[in-house]
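Input (structure):
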């Protein structure tokens, strides 16, 4: 595997291959095989129209050749930061045709996160859209490049003539006579090597990099599609960021690929955009976070669209409460609400379309593969009694054995036996499904986006007016959780939420990480061990919000 990654034990690799869990095919090879088998079948719909399997494969082939001509090589690492446009899919497969390794960045990421990813990985290229939703990504890319000596290539979607930037549009217009025969024999991806890197929730600062191989991710996606009963008539609606694990492959775009289905890329989560795409292209599966599905359910525009093509509404990224499950089922009576509980590190749990109604409503699903191993353990790592709450730990054919270049952290995040410590507190339902009860780790889950309290605290502490700070989650009916900063100010100092967030934006972090409430206090509660009691702070802010609501 790529240097800096933890491989599976050799005997497990042999077993996964022998039992058929792992195929000797890369992601690009799966696309190529379908392009030969059904070249005219639609693979992607977006605002610009339709692209078939054959067209996507041909565009990816042309782009791969163009990138090779620029000097990019197998195992070169790239920052892939594109929104939900067709170029995202084309670039993704083009990189795998070469054997490059993209880091799946989000459009919300900014200078701080991107610089960290590039420095840690030695990334050579950055793919981005020059401007998106009013933000100048080109200027930011130049800033990141100036900070990271290895980042030689800036590659932008579309056409343009800016100095030092290669635009993708012309590269995808190369003549068709240029083909794989022009490519050196060593180009291409090893199915058992790292395909790309996803991002962790970032519980201890900026996100960790999660190396996923072609073989393990294809198996993950294939088992998701099988668990949900997907076939070639599946039409998957992507309004969430396509680079998210949920939208990408668990179940996502890659699961759709494994059954020869179609994908709709929505440029935003605007209700009219999403409903219009479902109606126009007869979408069958809608993945959403609880925050997104609440927004769609509350939209007055919903009644203007024919949404009867939907068969499944798949909610993940955060627990879907039973009350929300009931609303989804009542509103989309022709669709089955599906719980999706998983992690970019691997394990994916889904409720099944044929599960009993109470199991669908009350649980967050079960592993998609019989080869997944799960345990529920106490603080000492001992299995708890059936039905008791404990930490979920897991290992299996698509759960990583270690983060990228994080040896010290890996010693904490993984057991000696190779189980990943998820940090999720769960209990097992009598059906065998999982019920999620909370998180061990100090992380705020804002509508599926994970915010490291430690990262934001460290930045706030650098403000000249701040003496002490604790950032905690506060409950929110739409986003699930938002962040609240409890701050002790220095003598004579003052600070408003607007001033604090202006300061934090100057640190060039993603906007979703900004605190949404500021509590200026004289002191912070502490535990008997002398540590700040975040439990007490969470209870305080929840109580204040409840009192305010009831007035």
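Output (sequence):
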């Amino acid at each position: 595997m790529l240097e800096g990654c933890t491989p599976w034990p050799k005997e497990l690799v042999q077993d996964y291959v022998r039992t058929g869990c792992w195929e000797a095919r890369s992601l690009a090879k799966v696309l190529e095989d379908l392009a030969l088998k059904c070249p005219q079948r639609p693979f992607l719909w977006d605002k610009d129209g339709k692209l078939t399997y054959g067209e996507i494969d041909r565009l990816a082939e042309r782009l791969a050749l163009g990138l090779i001509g620029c000097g990019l090589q197998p195992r070169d690492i790239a920052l892939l930061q594109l929104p939900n446009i067709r170029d995202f899919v084309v670039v993704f497969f083009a990189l795998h045709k070469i054997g490059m390794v993209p880091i799946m960045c989000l459009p919300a990421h900014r200078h701080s996160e991107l610089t960290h990813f590039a420095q840690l990985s030695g990334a050579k290229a950055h793919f981005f859209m020059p401007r998106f939703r009013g933000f100048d990504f080109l200027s930011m890319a130049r800033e990141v490049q100036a900070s990271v000596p290895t980042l030689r290539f800036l590659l932008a979607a579309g056409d343009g003539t800016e100095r030092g930037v290669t635009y993708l549009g012309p590269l995808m217009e190369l003549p068709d006579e240029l083909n794989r025969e022009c490519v050196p024999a060593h180009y291409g991806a090893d199915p058992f090597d790292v395909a790309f890197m996803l991002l962790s929730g970032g519980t201890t600062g900026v996100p960790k990099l999660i190396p996923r191989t072609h073989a393990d991710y294809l198996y993950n996606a294939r088992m998701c599609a099988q668990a949900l009963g997907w076939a070639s008539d599946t039409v998957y609606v992507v309004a969430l960021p396509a680079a998210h694990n949920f939208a990408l492959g668990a179940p996502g775009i890659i699961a759709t690929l494994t059954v020869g289905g179609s994908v709709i890329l929505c440029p935003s989560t605007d209700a009219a955009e999403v409903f219009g795409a479902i109606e126009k292209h007869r979408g069958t599966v809608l993945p959403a976070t609880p925050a997104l599905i609440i927004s769609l359910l509350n939209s007055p525009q919903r009644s203007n669209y024919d949404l009867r093509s939907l068969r499944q509404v798949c909610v993940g990224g955060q627990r879907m409460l039973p009350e929300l499950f009931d609303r989804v089922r009542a509103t989309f009576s022709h669709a089955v609400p599906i719980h999706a509980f998983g992690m970019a590190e691997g394990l994916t749990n889904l409720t099944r379309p044929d599960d009993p109604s109470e199991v669908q409503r009350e649980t967050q699903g079960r592993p998609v593969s019989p080869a997944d191993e799960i345990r529920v353990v106490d603080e000492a790592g001992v299995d708890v009694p059936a039905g008791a709450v404990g930490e979920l730990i897991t290992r299996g054919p698509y759960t990583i054995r270690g983060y990228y270049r994080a040896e010290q952290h890996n010693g904490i995040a993984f057991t000696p036996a190779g189980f990943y410590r998820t940090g999720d507190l769960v209990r097992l339902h009598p059906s065998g499904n999982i019920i999620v009860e909370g998180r061990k780790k100090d992380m705020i889950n804002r509508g599926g986006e994970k915010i490291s309290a430690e990262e934001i605290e460290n930045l706030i502490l650098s403000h000249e007016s701040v003496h002490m700070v604790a950032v905690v989650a506060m409950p929110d009916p739409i986003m699930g959780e938002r962040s609240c900063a409890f701050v002790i100010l220095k003598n004579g100092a003052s600070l408003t939420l607007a001033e604090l967030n202006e300061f934090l934006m100057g640190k060039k972090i993603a906007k979703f990480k900004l605190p949404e409430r500021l509590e200026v206090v004289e002191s912070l509660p502490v535990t008997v061990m002398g540590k700040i009691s975040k439990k007490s702070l969470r209870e305080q802010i929840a109580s204040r919000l409840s009192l305010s609501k009831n007035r």
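Notes: The chain has a mean pLDDT of 93. Residues 65 and 183 are 7 Å apart (CA to CA).
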